[in-house]
Amino acid sequence: MKQLEIEFKTLLTEREYHSLCHFYHLTKQDFHAQTNVYFDTPQGDLRQKHCGLRIRQYADKGEITLKTPQKVGLLETTDSFTLTEIQQLIKEKKIPTTGVVAKELKQLTIAIDQLTVIASLTTKRAEFTIPEGLLALDESWYNNQHDYELELEVSDAEIGKQAFDTYLEAHNLSYRPAENKIMRAIKTI
Predict the structure, then answer these.
(1) Do residues 111 and 40 lie in contact, with contact meaning Cβ atoms separated by under 8 Å?
(2) Segment 104-139, tens digit of pLDDT
(3) Nearest partner of 99 among 87, 86, 114, judged by Cα
(4) Is-contact 27 10, C-beta < 8 A?
(5) How many whole angstroms separate alpha carbon 44 and alpha carbon 65?
(6) How far is 167 from 20, CA to CA, in rounded Å?
(7) What is the per-residue pLDDT across 1-29, written as a single tens digit (0 to 9) for each?
């Protein structure tokens, strides 16, 4: 599966995060856990191409996603797996050599057999649609770090940027640049 991801994000303070959870009346049942295991070659071939590769495990399934930069946003190429399959891939620290992700990796001249785990991160996420787009509130843990983040996924970059800025202002939130989770995790190794 392939889809274009256009998102705007900001880091939140713990207080801002809990305030938004309260504003949206979120309960424990609104959140789900996901663990991301990130891969690259020892030489950082994916990073040099501004790409990201992860295995994501949910409670009942998993997926492998390759993110590649586009003129606007990131192209997400994803293969889906059962929970048992994804757990085995994580245990073996391997990316399959078949599927749409493998095909894209080959087109990028990335040697799949050279890929290795470079970081992991666990997130507790609430995700729901608001008028501006798809909103995600994340609390993440990685390498003795703990942070909070708001992501707004939109279908149009220009309209989405305006909506994101308006949303921050309406909720009295300061913009704090948030690197992608993979970069935050890698920088703390």
Answers:
(1) no
(2) 999 999 999 999 999 999 999 999 999 999 999 999
(3) 86
(4) no
(5) 17
(6) 12
(7) 999 999 999 999 999 999 999 999 999 99
Structure tokens at 3: 């889809």
The fraction of the chain above a pLDDT of 70, given in percent, is 100
Q: Which residues contact 14 (CB under 8 A, 6 or more apart)?
A: 148
Q: Where does residue 23 rank: exposed (0-12), middle (13-18), buried (19+ CB within 10 A)?
A: exposed
23-27 CB contacts, 8 Å cutoff, 24+ apart? 23/171, 24/126, 24/128, 24/137, 26/126, 26/137
CA angle 132, 58, 64 (to 5 degrees): 85
**Residue keyed to tokens 């085995």:** 88
pLDDT (0 to 100) of residue 189: 79
Element (H, E) at 76: strand 74-82
